TrEMBL record:
Protein task: Binds and transfers iron-sulfur (Fe-S) clusters to target apoproteins. Can hydrolyze ATP.
Source domain of life: Bacteria
Sequence similarity: In the N-terminal section; belongs to the MIP18 family.
Gene Ontology BP term (one): iron-sulfur cluster assembly
SUPFAM superfamilies: Fe-S cluster assembly (FSCA) domain-like (SSF117916), P-loop containing nucleoside triphosphate hydrolases (SSF52540)
Protein name (database record): Iron-sulfur cluster carrier protein
Keyword hit for DNA damage: no
Subunit-structure text: Homodimer.
Record keywords: 4Fe-4S, ATP-binding, Hydrolase, Iron, Iron-sulfur, Metal-binding, Nucleotide-binding, Transit peptide
Cofactor (UniProt): [4Fe-4S] cluster
Residue ranges of the region described as Disordered: 81-120
Length: 391
């Protein structure tokens, strides 16, 4: 097993984002965690360059994996996807998106006046509640959380659908291991695909993956509106929406136009310090969408060998911030190989190991999310979010 210094010496061979310097001397590498052949660290990159710099992350994993005694390497890249840079292009079905009418109201519409209840926006027939999962920036595990939260809501007895609104880089098809093209059921209405008993709709089903395409804000909204309203969702208790990362105009307009029962903010411990999660919270507050709470993802590292818990990324920030901000704290998801590997393989841990420790974490988060939705329903639209006191 190498030492931390040996790992850093290898990482110093990886050039920085502009091929100048190296990632270690540029100060981009976090604390390195070593345990029984596993090496875990994160690399900080400029917010808008995450996608472009994925090879850098892979290069970092590769150099470290070559060290003797290293069995697994987990390098996390925390950064923002730049809207428009993703490899998507509308296929014929998605081409219709451009002809969908523009959003019902722009900025400064009824919601911006302050007290417009979410229920006043046109709902989706048959869908009981729509929940957004959002993050201030990309790479924090928003899609992984959406997927496992949806499965956990289902495990808790609800009928669940997932709408992948992260159209710059749709990952829901991979997470649910579903592919193919949604068939029309009548006219423009499409039948959603299904993964693990959950109805799923994603731009990933409608676009050619390889071809780049610039999605402009208004088109993003039209595409999402189409996926929301022109899909045969059937009877659902809850539709979970994987929002595009970030808090730009497209997200704001969407938050304003979709009749959301509430929003869940996913954050890593570091992001709170960087106030990205706060931006996410404020965005929903601006349009009076209730905040269901914050999930701290990659919160701590649970050592699979010694069973010990290691707070390598300064875990705990979310709970404190949530309390300060008056938003419920929904739970902590550990940084774990199993979560990453199962997500990336399309076999999410909540469904493949339903009685395991990770599934238990997601089910508890799902329980709290649903309790908040129901409480909001009972109380009507809240003016100010309440703090959930942990026992
Ligand atoms: P986002 O939707 O915020 O861009 P993703 O859900 O795509 O983020 O996650 C980014 C990467 O981090 C993926 O490779 C995913 O498997 C991994 N990941 C997410 N959450 C965890 C976790 N709790 N432990 C380990 N890896 C995780």
């Amino acid at each position: 097993m190498p030492t931390r210094e040996e790992v850093l010496a290898e990482l110093a061979k990886v050039k920085g984002p502009d091929l100048e310097g190296d990632i270690v001397s540029l100060g981009l590498v976090s604390d390195v965690f070593l345990s029984e052949g596993r090496v875990i660290f994160s690399i900080t990159v400029p917010a808008e360059r995450a996608q472009e710099l994925e090879p850098l992350r892979q290069a970092a994993e590769k150099v470290v994996s070559k060290l003797p005694g290293v069995k697994k390497v987990l390098a996390a890249l925390t950064s923002e996807r730049k809207p428009g840079s993703a490899p998507v292009r509308p296929a014929p079905a998605a081409g219709d998106a451009a002809s969908v009418p523009p959003p019902m109201q722009g900025r400064g519409g009824a919601a911006a006046k302050g007290k417009e209840p979410a229920a006043a926006k046109p709902g989706v027939p048959g869908v009981g509640a729509i929940i957004a999962v959002a993050s201030g920036k990309g790479g924090v595990g928003k899609s992984t959380t959406t997927c496992n939260l949806a499965l956990a809501l289902q495990a808790n007895g609800l009928r669940v659908g997932v709408l992948d609104a992260d159209i710059y880089g749709p990952s829901i098809p991979r997470l649910f291991r579903v592919s193919g093209r949604p068939e029309p059921v009548s006219g423009r209405i499409l039948k959603p695909l299904e993964g693990y008993g959950i109805k799923v709709m994603s731009m990933g089903f409608l676009v050619e993956e390889e071809t780049p395409m610039i999605w402009r804000g208004p088109m993003v909204i039209s595409a999402i509106t189409q996926m929301l309203r022109e899909v045969a969702w059937g009877e659902l208790d809850v539709l979970v929406v994987d929002m595009p990362p970030g808090t730009g105009d497209a997200q704001l307009t969407m938050a304003q136009n979709v009749p959301l029962a509430g929003a869940v903010i996913v954050s890593t411990p570091q992001d709170l310090a960087l106030i990205d999660a706060r931006k996410g919270l404020n965005m929903f507050r601006r349009v009076d969408v209730p905040l269901l709470g914050i999930v701290e993802n990659m919160s701590y590292f649970l050592c699979p060998d010694c069973g010990g818990r290691h707070d390598i990324f300064g875990h705990g920030g979310a709970r404190e911030e949530a309390e300060k901000l008056g938003v419920p704290f929904l739970g902590e998801v550990p940084l774990d190989m199993a979560i990453r590997e199962t997500s990336d393989a399309g076999t999410p841990v909540t469904v493949t190991d339903p009685d395991g420790a990770h599934a238990a974490v997601y089910k508890e988060i799902a329980r709290r999310v649903w309790a908040e939705v129901e409480r909001n329903r009972a109380e009507g639209q809240r003016d100010a979010p309440k703090i959930v006191l942990e026992s």
